[in-house]
Amino acid sequence: MAFTRGFTGKRRGDRAARGDRLPPGQYDTGTDWPTLTAEATPRATPEGWSITVDGLVEEERAWDWREAHALPGSTYAGDIHCVTTWSKFDMRFTGVSVDTLLDAARPRPEAAYVMAHSSSGYTTNLPLDDLRGGKAWIVWEVDGKPLSVPHGGPVRLLVPHLYFWKSAKWISRLELMGRDRPGFWEANGYHDRGDPWLEQRYQGDP
Amino acid sequence: MSAPTGAWTTGRLAEVTRDSERLVRLRFEVADRIDHLPGQHYVLRLRAEDGYTAQRSYSIASDPADPLLELMIECLPDGEVSSFMHAEARVGDEFELRGPIGGWFTWAGDVPALCLAGGSGVVPIVSMMRHARRLGVEHLLRVVVVGRTLPELPYEDELVGRADLIALTRENLGSRVAAPPYPDELVDLVDGVDRAYVCGSVGFASFAQRVLGEAGMRADAVRVEQFGATS
Which structural domain, as residue segments, surrounds residue B150? Predict the structure, then answer.
């Protein structure tokens, strides 16, 4: 590919400082945490929140705010990557591992994909394997403080090894499915899996 | 209607206009261009000789029937891509472009809609306005723009006389005293529209959703495109 005349790159420091923690095409957003939302931000409260795990499961399960907090806690400390090309380093999210929810609902053998639903109507699809094995959480705290509504609070999904649109804000339901079907951004041209290390940004990427 | 999505291609810069210290208008000849829907965006990627790349997304300002693809880029202080395009880009340069992208914040000229845009958020709205004019459906599109001053507003020349309301926050405009739009200025504009498009910074988008709600707009009919940072 031809290079851009005169371009040397003035943010190379990001790559030098972050080394192999910065996926291709990303930059370090520093202390900023941009918020991107396609729909009107809902009015969300802890009292009104719950999450349901249903679809291809042995037992449909649901937890409200209090019940979710009674589950064993789990923390993710690390980086997040947004498809709009910012990455944010050394964040700390606290909540519950999605494994805990799935173990309670017991996915049926034919379950292979999950549609994550938000109370706003937003959806995003993920392979079930990307939500298991200590790779995904539902979280209500970031860097020791409650998650704000613009950032998806009171509770959002967190799947930090994939682009951040997969980490659905205002998470309300995990629907286990036998076949993949596109969620909101996926139906609008974005990738079904969204691995930042493979730059799976849009449909048609590897 | 499903929106088109394009792959990586090459764009040759055909026209560069520096509208102000902060705004540069770029018009590209795009190889194998796929027609966009107003509201969609392109990704612009810069590549250094050693392979280092930087890429950002920019809203399209042109009508799909325009033979060139037009982007309006606001220069951000730390913007690696925007500052390069301001300082260095020249007619004849070639760039990696990918698009069109985004199938949600789009208007095909089919439903009555209200646009509420702040600052450089007017760019995709300008694409919608140009589209409406070409299709002869300008009556379907109501436009409200918010800016600090008139000279700071991108596409000031196209907005004056066309927008249903220009709300300036730092200087008076005619008899209108500087202020963000009031709900009562929007009530008549909200009446009868099926959809609202909000585009601007995070802070603007939050304000816009609230004021639209106060003016009677249904929240589930609002589509939002926001950019910029919040800590």
Answer: 113-227
> CATH code at B23?
2.40.30.10
Establish if B108 belongs to a structural domain: no
Cβ–Cβ contact A33 with B under 8 A:
yes
Q: Predicted confidence band at B231 (pLDDT cuts at 50, 70, 90)?
A: very low
> Which one is predicted more confidently, A17 or B179?
B179
B222 touches chain A (CB under 8 A): yes
User: How much is the ipTM here?
Assistant: 0.81
Rounded to whole angstroms, the Cα distance separating A7 from A158 reads 36
Angle at A147 between CA A142 and CA A151, to 5 degrees: 105
Q: Note whether A9 contacts B93, CB cutoff 8 Å.
A: no
Of residues A7, A29, A40, nearest to B222 (C-beta): A40
Q: Are B154 and B90 within one domain?
A: no
B125 and B157 in a single domain? The answer is yes
Q: Residue B230: what pLDDT?
A: 42
- Across A145-161, average pLDDT: 96
Interchain contact A143–B (C-beta under 8 A): no
Q: Is the CB of residue A142 less than 8 Å from the CB of residue A204?
A: no
pLDDT digit string, tens, across residues A176-198:
999 999 999 999 889 999 999 99
Q: Look at chain B and report how many structural domains it folds into.
A: 2
Q: How far apart are the first and last CA of chain A?
A: 18
Q: Given CB atoms, is A41 within the 8 Å cutoff of chain B?
A: yes
From chain A, pick out residues whose CB is under 8 angstroms from the CB of B224: 37-40
Q: Which of A1, A18, A26, A19 is nearest to A197 (CA)?
A: A26
Asked if residue B148 and residue B170 are part of one domain, the reply reads yes
What does pTM read for this prediction? 0.86
